Amino acid sequence: MRLRKVHSAFIAAVLTCSLTVAPVFAEPTQSELEDQKANAQSELSSLQAELDALSSKIAELENKLIQTGEEIAQAEKDLAAAEEKKEEQYDAMKLRIKYMYESGSGTATMEKVMSSGNISDMLSQAEYSQQVHEYDREQLQEYANTVTEIENLQAKLEEEMDSLEKDEAEFQEQQAVLSDTIADKQDEISNLDEMIQEAARKAEEERRAAEEAARRQQEAANSGGSQTGGNGNTGGSSGSSGSAPSYSPSTGNAIVDRAYSKLGCAYVWGATGPNTFDCSGLVGYAVTGSYSRVCTSGSLASLPRVSDPQPGDICVKSGHCGIYIGNGMMIHAPTTGDVVKVAPVQSGMWYVRW
């Protein structure tokens, strides 16, 4: 059966679309890079599936080419056998004619038999001659029919072989284009991996720099509080009893480090660890170091809000929470099917300090 051709223009359009890359900004965040990588991996999977389907078609074509080649070879053998049979028939017919002549069965002999009045010999000679002629005619007609049938089959098979070879060449060309596209997409993913690692490194450097700045600020504040102690005031005594607790860089650093240690763990609703978390389960582990649900919606809502969030504070909104790591980023367990990861702080969140 003739296989349907794949339109080259359509394939080219698909490949052109697959090569489209999301615009890259000057300083993409780690989350943006991870999204780009996910898109590239999805495109790579689609390209690989298309290549697998094309390879399967090529394999089918190759099997069909082998089968058609064998059928053409058999047709050539049948045609040669028919030619040989024709030669045998021709030689046999010549022998019969020669025998009829030598045995007196020719025209002259027939006239002699008829003039002699021997009706029995005449009828016998006439019947034999007629049978010989009819047999030869039938054999020659059978040969002609066989040769015509074989020649038609051979022509049809050769036409099909030519079409199959053209299809195979077209599929192989498409296969080469797809292979090159896949290689480019794999290079793109490798580059994105390097960029993600670099973004993570920069984020970590910025986090530690922020912690160091906060530590120095705290030290300066403590130093200033000690100097005013002689006047009967203590550092932080000016705040009301309901004000937010002072920030501790060491505590914030420990919270962030514990959150970082769970990157990549799968989200499971209600899970508190050690290898699966939901959002409050992750926050509970980060702030306490224990695998228990201590950060419920009620407990987080009762914590004092802060307007100057520092690494280790908790990002909160109705139905979700995460650990703030600085520079507008947080670590959180997003939703089913996702994993613990770094992402921008979501709109509508506020900050509380544990």
From TrEMBL:
It holds the Pfam family NLPC_P60. Residues 30-92 form a coiled coil. PANTHER family: NLP_P60 DOMAIN-CONTAINING PROTEIN-RELATED (PTHR47359:SF3), PEPTIDOGLYCAN DL-ENDOPEPTIDASE CWLO (PTHR47359). It comes from the Bacteria. Residues 226-239 have a biased composition (Gly residues). Residues 240-250 have a biased composition (Low complexity). Residues 199-218 have a biased composition (Basic and acidic residues). Residues 199-250 are annotated as: Disordered. Belongs to the peptidase C40 family. Residues 1-26 form the signal peptide. SUPFAM superfamilies: Cysteine proteinases. Gene3D superfamilies: 6.10.250.3150, endopeptidase domain like (from Nostoc punctiforme). GO terms for molecular function: cysteine-type peptidase activity. The lineage of its organism: Bacteria, Bacillati, Bacillota, Clostridia, Lachnospirales. This is C40 family peptidase. Residues 249-354 form the NlpC/P60 domain. Keywords: Coiled coil, Hydrolase, Protease, Signal, Thiol protease. GO terms for biological process: proteolysis.
